[in-house]
């Protein structure tokens, strides 16, 4: 399979730190083919930018025309453009290429060098706002660049201002800020919040913005949506921040590590609000082995009696059911389900579960996001008092949000196509499950489309802590609880069937 192609239209750093040099290093690690297009030349070293020499519009046009038919891009990334005329060459080519088919545009608005040199006058800022940003799929300014583009304010407000210009998604990077966490504000169709990792004390950080934007562009080219692409870009860029000697007197270049994709220390948290790091540690797995889901308390009890240790009670409230009747029915189902020494998990209804002395709840992330700030504090307080929590996850950014909440387990799904619940997600498969199990800082549960014991064997052999069964353990199912228990024991004793590698996208772009 051919590698995805991205174009980087940016500046050439004569010191080899930022610009096209950084873009090439990031693209190589992301395993995409980069076409480096010089929009400007810079006379710089690791200490200072001494001159910016824009490439003429005609020469920029010639480079893009040469690439267009032979090496058409899936994504274009822009960096230092040099001037308004060069920017307009780019916008014309974006429009031409989009007339042929989809092309994403990632704009890294390089407006000022780290050393302080300005790369954009008022005319260039207007051209960004009026001409380039309205075409952008994602824009990745740092805090100072966001302020120059849309004015001062909190990153969440700046992101909204940038979106009002026509930008589809925004990631305002904060790696050059102070504080114990490196915080980037993400605002996209699918997710918003702070992408966070502990700040690294690294002398060699020249070109981080270029590296981040190129990694994000490469992830889009590989089929990831913007929110997942930002997670990958955060991981890759952080992997390249290093201590040690620099080749010059100033900061050395960021050098991403090809092993970033399977380094669990690089998985960021996605916070809705700023929090402290590190998060709580997870002791022995709260769930292990066969994990059943049922909508009947008596059936849950029968599954416990058959040898299962973990059952989730998924009780849905009907539209015509009043509060009192609903709570009475839920209480009766919970009472029927209880068995000493077994783990009963209640789906969704965490307040009712607490009131009924159930100490384990499961939430989908849409339910988590629907909570008000007060309700989130209430849930956090209940967890501090001993309430255990499981969370669903279907994508990289949902796994990052789970890291922020530090649940007792996270579910990865759907593994296979399922009709149990309508959802937009592509099947995760065993490759994503093995990645989840290797990367997540909490136990992972595989779920979705598990109809035969042979599938449960594979889940166990991917390193998951448990596997969820719904229809396969329904009353009258073909396979008995013992069949499923034996399948788990078989898989748990096997070596990994799928080694962790690159995850694949789980949501169509």
Automatic annotation (TrEMBL):
Pathway: Cofactor biosynthesis; thiamine diphosphate biosynthesis. Its EC number is 2.7.1.49. Its cofactor is Mg(2+). Gene3D superfamilies: 3.40.1190.20, Aldolase class I. InterPro entries: Aldolase_TIM (IPR013785), HMP/HMP-P_kinase_dom (IPR004399), PM/HMP-P_kinase-1 (IPR013749), Ribokinase-like (IPR029056), ThiamineP_synth_sf (IPR036206), ThiamineP_synth_TenI (IPR022998). Residues 13-254 form the Pyridoxamine kinase/Phosphomethylpyrimidine kinase domain. GO terms for molecular function: hydroxymethylpyrimidine kinase activity; phosphomethylpyrimidine kinase activity; thiamine-phosphate diphosphorylase activity. The keyword Coiled coil does not apply. Residues 291-472 form the Thiamine phosphate synthase/TenI domain. Keywords: Kinase, Multifunctional enzyme, Transferase. It holds the Pfam family TMP-TENI. This is hydroxymethylpyrimidine kinase. It comes from Roseateles asaccharophilus.
């Amino acid at each position: 399979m051919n590698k995805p192609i991205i174009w980087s239209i940016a500046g050439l750093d004569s010191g080899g730190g930022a610009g096209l040099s950084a873009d090439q290093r990031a693209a190589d690690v992301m395993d995409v083919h980069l076409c480096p297009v010089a929009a400007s030349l810079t006379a710089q070293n690791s200490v200072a930018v001494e001159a910016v020499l824009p490439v003429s519009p005609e020469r920029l046009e010639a480079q893009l025309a040469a690439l267009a038919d032979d090496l058409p891009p899936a994504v274009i990334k822009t960096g230092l453009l040099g001037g308004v005329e060069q920017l307009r060459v780019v916008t014309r080519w974006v429009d031409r290429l989009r007339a042929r088919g989809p092309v994403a545009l990632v704009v890294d608005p390089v407006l000022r060098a780290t050393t302080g040199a300005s790369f954009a006058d008022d005319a260039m800022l207007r051209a960004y706002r009026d001409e380039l940003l309205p075409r952008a799929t994602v824009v990745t300014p740092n805090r100072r660049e966001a302020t120059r583009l849309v004015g001062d304010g909190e990153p969440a407000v700046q992101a909204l201002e940038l979106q009002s210009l026509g930008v589809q998604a925004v990631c305002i990077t904060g790696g050059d800020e102070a504080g114990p966490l490196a915080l980037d504000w993400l605002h996209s169709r699918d997710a918003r919040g702070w992408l966070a990792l502990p700040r690294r004390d690294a002398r060699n950080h020249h070109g981080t913005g270029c590296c981040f934007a190129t990694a994000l562009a490469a992830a889009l080219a590989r089929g990831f949506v913007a929110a997942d692409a930002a997670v990958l870009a955060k991981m890759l860029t952080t992997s390249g921040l290093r201590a040690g000697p620099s080749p010059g007197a100033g900061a050395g270049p960021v050098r991403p590590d090809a092993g970033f994709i399977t380094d669990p220390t690089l998985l960021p948290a996605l916070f809705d609000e700023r929090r402290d790091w590190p998060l709580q540690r997870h002791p022995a797995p709260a769930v292990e082995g066969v994990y059943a889901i049922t909508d009947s308390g008596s059936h849950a009890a029968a599954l416990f009696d058959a040898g299962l240790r973990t059952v989730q009670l998924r009780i849905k409230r009907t539209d015509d059911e009043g509060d009192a009747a609903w709570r009475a029915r839920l209480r009766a189902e919970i009472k029927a389900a209880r068995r000493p020494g077994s783990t009963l998990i209640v789906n969704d209804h965490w307040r009712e579960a607490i009131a009924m002395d159930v100490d384990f709840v499961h939430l989908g992330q849409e339910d988590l996001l629907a909570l008000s700030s007060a309700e989130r504090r209430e849930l956090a307080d209940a967890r501090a008092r001993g309430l255990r929590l499981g969370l669903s996850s279907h994508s990289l950014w949902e796994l990052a949000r789970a890291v922020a909440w530090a649940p007792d387990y996270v579910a990865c799904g759907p593994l296979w196509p399922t009709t149990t619940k309508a959802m937009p997600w592509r099947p995760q498969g065993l490759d994503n499950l093995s990645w989840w199990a290797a990367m997540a800082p909490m136990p992972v549960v595989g779920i979705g489309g598990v109809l035969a014991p042979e599938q449960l064997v594979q889940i166990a052999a991917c390193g998951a802590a448990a596997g969820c069964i719904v229809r396969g353990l329904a009353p009258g199912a073909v396979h008995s609880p013992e069949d499923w228990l034996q399948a788990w024991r078989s898989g748990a004793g096997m070596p990994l069937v799928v080694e962790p590698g690159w995850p694949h996208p789980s949501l169509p772009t």
